[in-house]
Structure formats: C-alpha cells, structure tokens
C-alpha cells in the first residue's frame, strides 16, 4: 500500500517523511508534561519537601511543552496537507492520463456520475487518510514504540500490564475491519449509483417534464438515495459497537496496570517510583496508541480506494500508434471489420472502399450499426477484427492527433463549450484568425443568428445555449468543421435537428463543407444522399448491398423499402405543412 502511495506521491514524498518526524516531535513534547508531573509527585512520595523554584520550573516546563507540542503538531499537519494535496493532484493526473489512452466510446458509456465520483469524491476522500491517517499514524507508531521501550527498561512487568487491554481492543478492531470490508463494495456501488442517478435526473429534467415522468423518475432518484442511506447506516450499525469497544479498550492502559501494579508494589515486586513513572507514561500514551491502531485500520481502506480507482480504468488502452500519415491519398478502406460492445458483435465482416473525394452514404434501419462504423472510423474504439485504412495505412498505427487532423467528425451531439461563440468555432482550428472564424461562420450560415445576439461572436455559449435552436447549434459545429478543412469528413445525422426551413440551408452548408473531400455520411433522410457516389445498405450489422441510388432502387429490396418509407415520411411532413 505504501508503495502505491509513494508512487503517486513522487516529489511530495519528502514532505510526507518530514511531516512524520515533525509530528513525532509533537508527540514527544506531549509526553514531557507527564514526565514533569512524575518529577513533582516523586519527592512527595518520598516525603521530601520541594522548593517553589523547583515547582515553577516544572510548571513552566509543562506550559512550554504544550506550546511546542501545538506548534509542531500544526507544522506537521501543514506539511502533511501540502504533501497530501500534491499526491491527490498526481493521482488525478495519472488517472486522467490513463483515461486519455482508453477508447473514447468506453469513457462515454461509463456515465458522467461514475467519472465524477471517481475524479472528485473518491480522490477527495483520500485526503483525510493521506493528510492525517498516514503521517499521524506513522509518527504515533514510532512514538508509541519509543515510550514502550522506555517503560520496558524502567520495569518490564509493569510495562506488560499497560498493554494488557490491547489484545481485546485489537480483536474488536479486527472484527470491525472484517465487517467493514464485507460491506465496502456494496457501499461504494450504492454511492456510485446515487451519483449517476442524480446526474441523470438533473440532465433529464426536460424530458421528465415533457413526458410527465416526474413521479417515476423521482421514484428512481429516491430509491437511489434511500439505498445509499440504508447501506451506509447498515454499515455503521454493524461497526459502531466494535468501534466503541476498541475506542475504549485501546487507550485503557491503566485497566490492568493500576490494580496489578499496586499489588506488585505492595509485595515488593516493583518499586513505587517506577510504578508512578510507568503510570504517568501509560497515561501519556493513550491517544498516540489509539491513533496507531486507527492508522492500521485505515491502511486497507486506502488500498481499497486506490485499487478500485485503478480497476475502474483498468481497461485495455486504445491501440493508437505514433506514426505520421504517409499514405498517398485520402481514400478509405474497411477490411473485414468486425466489432462488438461488451462481446456482442454489432458489425460483422465489413468490406468497403471509399475513393478519395467521393461521397459514400450509409443507410439502414435503426440499430443496424451505421454510427458504430463511423465511431470505429474516427477511432473511438478499436476494431475487434480486420482493419480500417486511409491511403493504405492502418489507422491504428497513426497517432490520434494525426488521425484527428485528417478527419472532421460531425455527430448528432452538438456540444458547445461555455466559451464565446467565436472560441467555440475556433475549436476547429485553434490558430485560426478572427477573420477565418468569421468566414467559416458565414459559410455555415451562422451570421443571421450570431448577429441577433447582443454580444455577437463574444456571446458565451452557456448564456445563449437556450436561445439557440438545435439546428443553430448544429451549424456552429459545422462551422468548426469548415474551419478545420480536413480532407476527410464524417457526418453522422448532421442534419438531424434541421427543421424544413433550415434543411435547405444545412444542405447548402454541407455542400460547401464537403467540396473536394472524401465524405462518409449517415442519414435517415434518403433524399439527401441520392447523389452519393455509392450508397451502402446496412442490415443487422452487415453490408447487404452497395451501389448508386438508381442501381439499388432497381435491384435491392432492402433499399427500396427504406426509400419508400423515407418518401412517405417526407409526404407526411409536406401534408402537415400544407394543412
Ligand atoms: N455504447 C454502446 N454499448 C452497447 N451497445 C451499443 C452501444 N452503442 C450502440 N450499441 C448497440 O449497437 C447496435 C448498433 O448501434 P448503432 O448506433 O451503430 O446503430 P445505428 O444504425 O447507427 O442506429 P441509429 O440509426 O438509430 O442511430 C445497436 O443494437 C445498439 O443498441
């Protein structure tokens, strides 16, 4: 466990070690008052009188010791907190680096709730353990061992009595630990589910209201938080008697020392002075002893948390190479491509060639695997079998940056960052000048609604997000793609949000975007792809036919059905408008 922490601690490890020694110093200053008390009591026991000066020096000694104990304790905690937050930062960066190497599709399918809990809550919860548990625990271990050594040197019989209640305390702690370990997994799962449900509830509020699903959705939310409460309470209920047991038994160093020690003194087995000294030291050791034991019980928790964080990300990395593109053209080829989510194949043996600067359309029923092929092409996932090549080069050999520079992917999700519209478009080409951004916005027909905004291009997307229609947001993402000007373009339902009024505009925008580009387009509206150089019909994860619109219409029954269905829906829309 310490090995893991030191791995993530790196440059902070020295501070952690320093904090342990500074806290150890605080512990020793905490023991001095007990030592001085012993010095005051000792002459009285021997019937000797003590001078005012003797007493004053020791009282001042107690005061200074307490002040110094406070100073070193504060300094030690400051160091341990600096080290803890540094370690947490390293842990977050390492996890983020691991996450970056994983398939984007996997990350998206995990859900925001799980990732938020992992990056924020789980890592934050380690702070208590790192800033207090470990440094205070380690310094307490050293402090306790030193004091015991002194006590054993003074009188080993009395020293043994001080640890008499320890076995029962440790037993109580072990029982608590075993109970806790059994329930830890359930507890973390219920916390993750609660996070996920809360985020889903908030994100889906609009749908919930529109479809009157308030009761149902609130029920799910309520169940998740009730489960979390129940798991937590069940855990605490099972643990608290043992917690109370060890909390009382471990610091009870006098439980056996007082009765049996008195017996030893009365029968001449131990000296009175030694007895008093051991009593004073035993009293001083209670708190550090408890901290030592608490630290030992914390260790498995830290280990559990770090391992569960790592396990969550312990998926295979995306197979991306470091090579630059050295193909001689931007033609694309899918060779025997097979892929499945969680072991279930959703696309099988796909063979498809797209010549440079041609348009290929993927059509097919919902769920036939069109978007999956697009995501494989932009390398959100690794193919399970086969290969996807650009200009003859396998995309898995290319660095993600090289691939991303070559391909513009416009999906159905029009995510806008909460930065200005100007910067949102500039995402397509970070070094573009304002003039270039404006030109792209103009080509994407964004000017009419950007000019409507009070701050124009400087309007924050978050501020205007609600004022922008789905089609307008889509045009912003198309402006990004126009600005990027990549040689290959993938459009996945890029006109999905366009209303009839917008549709024509969008078509024009797309015409401009794809001029002299290799284009892969997925569209439900078949009328928008009739001019494609080739149309590929997907059926249940396989390519059932490839040809032009005319060829497929004359001989492919699957395509005929799709075409007539799409014509019907267009007529229905037209009818609705006329009415
Ligand atoms: N992240 C995922 N995890 C598991 N299964 C998925 C995931 N994404 C898609 N699928 C499944 O894979 C199959 C193909 O989905 P895909 O989105 O590729 O189809 P599609 O033809 O693009 O559908 P649509 O036209 O409705 O967008 C479907 O059965 C779908 O349920």
Description:
This protein is α/β, with parallel strands linked by helices. It contains 21 helices and ten strands. The strands form two sheets. A six-stranded mixed beta sheet has the order 6-7-8-3-9-10. Helix 2 (13-45) packs antiparallel against helix 3 (52-100) and helix 2 (13-45) runs antiparallel to helix 11. The mean pLDDT is 83. Bound molecules: adenosine-5'-triphosphate. Adenosine-5'-triphosphate is lined by residues 105, 109, 341, 346, 364, 366-372. Adenosine-5'-triphosphate binds at residues 105, 109, 341, 346, 364, 366-372. Residues 332-565 form the ABC transporter domain. It is found in: Cell membrane.
- Number of distinct helices: 21
Question: How many beta strands in the DSSP annotation?
Answer: 10
Task: Note the gap between the termini.
Answer: 72 Å
Dominant shape? elongated
What's the architecture of the largest domain in CATH terms?
Answer: Up-down Bundle
Rg over CA atoms = 35 Å
CATH superfamily of the largest domain: ABC transporter type 1, transmembrane domain
CATH class of the largest domain: Mainly Alpha
CATH topology assignment of the largest domain:
ABC transporter transmembrane region fold
Instruction: Summarize the amount of helix as a percent range.
Output: 55-70%
How would you state the average pLDDT, rounded?
83
Strands of the widest sheet, in order across it, are: 6-7-8-3-9-10
Largest sheet: 6 strands, mixed
Total discrete domains: 2
Subcellular location: Cell membrane
Protein name: ABC transporter ATP-binding protein
Keywords: ATP-binding, Membrane, Nucleotide-binding, Transmembrane, Transmembrane helix
Membrane topology: Multi-pass membrane protein
